[in-house]
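Student: Please help interpret what follows.
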Amino acid sequence: MAGDELIQAHVSALSRVLPADIVAELADGLIETWHRHLAAGLPSADAAQAAVAEFGAPDQITAAFVTQSPGRRTARLLLASGPVAGLCWATGLITSRAWTWPVPRMGALLLASVLVLAVAALASAATSRHSYRRTRLTAAGGIAVAALDIAMLAVVVLTAPHGWPLLPAVAVSLARLTITVRVLPRTLARR
């Protein structure tokens, strides 16, 4: 196999699993490395093999990018904030006797369903080791978390007779909503 064909095959393998902007950057570096080996006097095929060996196998490169992906980091951040938010909300809702509020049972079931789906999407993205595409589930999970926080804040504003026991939960949700709104666009930008 000629050198440029080996380089092209390597880039092609990466393009199937990584975003186009990352692949373009890697391709530039791989070609530059190949040219450096050519300039050192290696034949084309040997220079290509040396460049590919220097860069690593596609699965090694993919694993490195998945580990550092914005989606994976954001998913982990949102998952880490979940127990704190849940504890604050549980404490506030119990203290406020939320079961006496005029909230339809279907609304509560819908919120619980969205919570389960959000956690599943975020857990899948956070635990991904070899699939960059799976880290993109952070977008769905992050949007669901933001929707949950907004819904809970709306419930408090519209139905809570004495909102002071819920202040810690409101503060946590506002902070998490702010973080989500700031990091989610960066996560979505890297497609």
Remarks:
- The two ends are 32 Å apart (CA to CA).
- The mean pLDDT is 87.
- The CA atoms of residues 58 and 64 lie 10 Å apart.
